[in-house]
Design a protein that fits this description.
alpha/beta, Rossmann fold, 6-phosphogluconate dehydrogenase C-terminal fold, 2 domains, five-stranded parallel sheet, 8 strands, 48% helix
Length: 285
């Protein structure tokens, strides 16, 4: 068993990501005690039952003052409010991060309300599942995943190093990124694909007798549409500007393909698919 790297960890939110953090650190012997804070007794009970946490409570005041590291795992729109509630409870030297899929509004709020050097540093582990809840948590969820970490001169270096060590200890590769640039990139790589996945599922389901002709392409394209709607509502609203910009671009690309198809322009239709093939290869390099 490894020597614990983290003494007392507090998870604010004990769903899939929070539960996976708790399980991952506990199974690796890297934490002495994990406390979970949540609103729903059922989620807290499930997190206790699956071994993701050692203590469950609905009150931040019971666990934050003794925690060395706090990870906020709530929906993105709730994180600024949680930061306001956590900040006055922190003990000296505690480090705070989050797992929000959007970063600009969260990090801007922290920059405006936390004293420098700021002991909150935003994180976005690029890992997850269409499933949710602590019962689906996985101690290996972050292995070989990328975790994007806020780059800011206002961040406390010791806190930032602590948070980077958290993700590295769970098997993730930490990549520094500006929050605004982060949101623009993930709008294209994650948020718009989810919107389009929901669109494909919606228009397909309007067709009678669809079942026998569903293949792997449909399953692959729509898997993420099974994600928790409230989480994706918050992601869309908190990254509205970048998503709207990307949707405009997507709409123009689709309109160009539609015009090519209407004109029966075989060369243009083939060029559309060739551009997509080449773009995917480039993106995955």
């Amino acid at each position: 068993m490894a020597t614990p790297t983290f003494d007392r960890l507090a998870l604010v939110g004990v769903g899939l990501l929070g539960g996976s953090i708790g399980k991952g650190l506990k199974q690796r012997g890297l934490v002495s005690h994990v406390a979970g804070v949540g609103h729903r007794a059922s989620s807290l009970d499930a997190a206790l039952a699956c071994g993701a946490i050692d203590k469950a409570t609905t009150h931040l005041e019971e666990v934050i003052p003794s925690a060395d590291l706090i990870v906020i795992c709530t929906p993105a729109l709730l994180i600024p409010d949680v930061l306001d509630r956590v900040r006055p409870l922190l003990k000296p030297g505690a480090a705070v991060t989050d797992v929000g899929s959007t970063k600009a509004h969260i990090c801007a709020h922290a920059a405006a309300t936390w004293p420098a050097p700021r002991r909150f540093v935003g994180s976005h582990p690029m890992a997850g599942s269409e499933k949710f809840g602590p019962e689906h948590s996985d101690p290996g969820l972050f292995v070989n995943a990328v975790c994007l970490l806020e780059s800011s001169p206002e961040a406390d270096p010791a806190a930032r190093a602590r948070i980077a060590a958290l993700w590295a200890s769970l098997g993730a590769r930490v990549v520094d990124m500006d929050p605004v640039h982060h949101d623009r990139l993930v709008a294209h790589s994650s948020h718009i694909p989810h919107i389009l996945s929901a669109l494909i599922a919606t228009i397909a389901a309007r067709q009678e007798g669809l079942g026998p002709v569903i293949g792997n392409g449909f399953r692959d394209m729509t898997r993420i549409a099974a994600g928790r709607p409230a989480i994706w509502r918050d992601i869309a609203l908190s990254n509205r500007d970048a998503i709207l910009e990307g949707l405009e671009e997507a709409a123009e690309e689709l309109a160009q393909f539609k015009r090519a198809l209407e004109a029966n322009d075989a060369a243009a239709v083939e060029a559309y698919f060739e551009a997509g093939r080449a773009a995917r290869e480039k993106a995955l390099q």
